[in-house]
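Exercise 7. Given the encoded structure of a 268-residue chain, write a plausible sequence.
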């Protein structure tokens, strides 16, 4: 039987993995950190693979694990893995002798229509504006984008909240954040804690990514409204997914069709 490749690391991917395990479909889940493995069920049909895949390694990975269908539930801003997997699954030569189906599981977006919430296309576009100048700014954007804000350390008072990992802390320090302007916490962040942190640092502007409710965007929106803080939401990168859903039921139905159809062909 062909395997499912679930590209994971998110809350939704854990939900999908449990549904896949319940059906006993063979599945390999890929995550980038060892700590993420705890999200997934211990089941005979589920194998968790830890590491970062080079684009050139993807065809080999697909063949090694006998992948028949990819369910991409990676983070909305993890665009490189999504782009590379779409490219490989659409390249018949790369995945011969059997085609590989692809489905993107995309968490719903939140609308930006309330007062005090500003939406912008990218970090680069944001830094072309003067929105941050003279402000006390909290960045809740992960560590990978912090280097973009290094030139702004002398134009605004910048704070950052990152994951409690060595690589994240080192990236924050390299971007010019002193230890008193870094807080390392693992989500989820409660409404009460979010509000307290903003008050403690007297934050006037918060920058976050359009990561939806699982990423705590809804909590930030509510706290911003209560405290009168400007919330800047950086939009998700635009990707032309071949197929996309935000429904667990639809995703599992898609997987079932692919797996059962290919199993039937083998039996014939």
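Solution.
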């Amino acid at each position: 039987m062909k395997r499912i490749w679930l590209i994971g690391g998110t809350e939704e991917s854990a939900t999908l993995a449990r549904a896949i395990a319940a059906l006993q479909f063979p599945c390999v889940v890929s995550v980038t950190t060892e700590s993420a493995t705890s999200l997934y069920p211990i089941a005979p049909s589920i194998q968790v693979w830890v590491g970062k895949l080079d684009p050139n390694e993807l065809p080999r990975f697909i063949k090694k694990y006998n992948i028949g269908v990819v369910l991409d539930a990676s983070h909305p801003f993890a665009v490189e893995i999504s782009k590379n997997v779409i490219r490989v699954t659409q390249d018949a030569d790369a995945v011969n002798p059997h085609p590989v189906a692809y489905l993107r599981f995309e968490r719903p977006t939140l609308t930006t229509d309330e007062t005090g919430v500003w939406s912008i296309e990218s970090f680069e576009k944001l830094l072309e504006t003067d929105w941050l100048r003279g402000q006390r700014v909290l960045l809740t954007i992960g560590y990978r984008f912090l280097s973009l804000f290094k030139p702004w350390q002398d134009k605004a008072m910048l704070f950052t909240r990152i994951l409690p990992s060595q690589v994240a802390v080192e990236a924050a320090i390299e971007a010019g954040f002193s230890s008193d302007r870094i807080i390392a916490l693992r989500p989820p962040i409660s409404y009460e804690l979010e509000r307290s942190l903003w008050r403690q640092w007297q934050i006037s502007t918060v920058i976050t990514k359009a990561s939806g409710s699982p990423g705590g965007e809804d909590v930030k929106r509510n706290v911003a409204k209560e405290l009168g803080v400007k919330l800047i939401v950086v939009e998700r990168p635009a990707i032309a997914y071949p197929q996309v859903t935000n429904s667990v039921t639809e995703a599992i139905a898609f997987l079932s069709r692919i797996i059962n159809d290919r199993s039937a062909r083998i039996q014939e």
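Remark. The mean pLDDT is 91. Students should compare their own answers with the one above.
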